[in-house]
Amino acid sequence: MGTIFEIRATTYKADHHLKVEGDVWRWVCTNSSRVGDCLRRRFCGSFNSNPIKFPGRRWSSASAAARFCLLFLNQLHSFAEVWKMAATKHFPRMVSHVILDLDGTLLNTDGVMNEVLKVFLVKYGKRWDNKISQKIIGRTPLEVATTIVKDYSLSLTTEELMSAISPMFSDQWCNIKALPGSNRLIKHLRSNGVPMALASNSSKSCIEAKISFHQGWNESFSVIIGGDEVITGKPSPEIFLEAAKRMNVDPANCLVIEDSLPGVVAGKAAGMEVVAVPSLPKQAGLYSSADEVINSLLDLHPEKWGLPPFEDWIEGTLPIEPWYIGGPVIKGFGRGSKVLGIPTANLPAENFSPILSEHTSGVYFGWAGLSTRGIYKMVMSIGWNPYFDNTEKTIEPWLLHDFGEDFYGEELRLAIVGYIRPEANFPSLESLIARIHEDGRIAEKALDLPIYAGYKDSPNLKNSMLQRNCHS
Ligand code: ADP
Ligand code: RBF
Ligand code: MG
Questions:
Q1: Taking CB atoms and a 6 Å cutoff, what residues make up the pocket around ligand 1?
Q2: pTM above the 0.85 mark?
Q3: Cα gap 309→269, rounded to integer Å
C-alpha cells in the first residue's frame, strides 16, 4: 500500500517526514542528526487510520518540526478514536514535572544497607544473604523491619529492631554514594527549569539527612516528601499524588523515576508516566507495568517524555568521571572469545568488588596499560553478559590491538573514561559479535577526541594500582 498519510517537516539541515504506509508509521529523516535519531525511535509504530494528506512546510529547526508534528498528532488524537490505541502504546505522554525516588534510584543505598544488616544480624547469630532484598526494596521502614524480624525469626519486636538499627543507618549516611547518572540528571533538569520532587517511603528527616551529603540536591527539589507525611506509603499512589499537588501540577503531567516495584505500581496508580531503573540485576521482567525499563540513569532519554534532551553525548559516547582499576590478567570463562576475534583480558573482579558495585553494568571504554608493553585503546563490558546469563558481575576488557599472543599474569591497568550503551541480550552469537565490533569502532574513534585522548597519559596507567585497590 502506498503512503496514505505524511507530515513533511523540512528543516534547513534535513527533511523530516512522518510517513504512514498501510498501518505502519515511520519517521524518516534525511540525515543522521541526534534529533533525527530520537524522532525515528519515537515515531515507530502502527495504527489504523483513514487517509489524510498534509502539506509540506519548512521549519527552522528539527525540534520545531518535531513539536509541530507532535502538536498535530495530539490534535488528531483528540478527534479520531482510531488513534487511541497507537497513542497510548507508542506515544509516551509529554510531561512537564519529574518525581524521583531516592534510595536505589538516586542513591546507592543498597551497599550501606547490606553492610548494616550484615553487622546487625551477626549479633543474633544470623547471616545476611541478600535473599530478601527484593522483598524490602521500596518498602516503608516499618515494613522492612517487620520482614526482617519474621524472615530471620529474630527474638525481638519490630519496634526494638527499628530503634536498634536506625542509629546504625544514620552513621552510614555520609557513605552513601550517588548512583551513576544521578548528579547529571539533577543538574540537567534543574538547569533546564524542569520542576522536580523527591518522594521516598523513608521519613522526611532521613531524606534530608541523606541528601545533605550531596551538593546541590536539596535546593534542586521544589518538593521533598517523606513516607511519614502520608497515610499509606508506596505502592499506594498517595505520596506521588501529594507531590503533584504540592507542585501544583496535574498528575498526568508527571514522570516518575523509580527503582522499586512498589514505586512503579504507585506511580502508575497515580496516573503518571513511569520509568523503572531496577536496582537489582536481572529483574527487568518484573517491571512490565512501567512505561519504560532502563538499566541505569545514564540510559534515560528525557526527550522521549517531552523534556529537554541531554546534550553531553559525543559521537555515540557519554563522557563519565574517569575511574581506574588494575591487576593481573587472569583466565576468563574460556569461551574461546579469541576465536570470535574478541579476546577479553579478565581481571580478578573480587579484588575490587566495591568499585565494581558502584558502576552500573554496561559497555564502557578507555585506555589500557600493560606493564611491559604500552598503552592501548580499550572497550569493555561490565556486568552479567545477558547472552551467557552469567551469575557473577565481571569486567571484560578487549584491547583494540593485535598482540598475536596471550599475556596472562601481566599487570593490566585501565582508565575507564566513557560509556557507550547498556548490556543487552542478542538473538544470535553473530549479532552479539557484530555489536561488540561496532562498540570497538565507536571507542576507537572516540578515544581520539580531546575529551578522552588526554587520559592516555594518566599516571594511573603506569603506576601499580594493586595496592590502592586493596584499600578501596
Ligand atoms: P579467557 O576466557 O581467558 O578470557 P579469551 O579467549 O577471552 O580467554 O582470551 C583472553 C586472553 O587473550 C587475554 O587474557 C590475553 O591474555 C589474550 N589477548 C590477546 N590479545 C588480546 C586483546 N587484544 N585484548 C584482550 N586480551 C587479549
Ligand atoms: N555480552 C552480552 O551478553 N551482552 C552485551 O551486550 C555484551 N557487550 C559486550 C561489549 C564489549 C565491548 C565486550 C568486549 C563484551 C561484551 N559482552 C556482552 C561480553 C561477551 O559476551 C564476552 O566478553 C565474551 O563472550 C567473552 O566471555
Ligand atoms: Mg575473557
A1: 329, 331-338, 343-346, 398-399, 401, 403, 406-408
A2: no
A3: 27
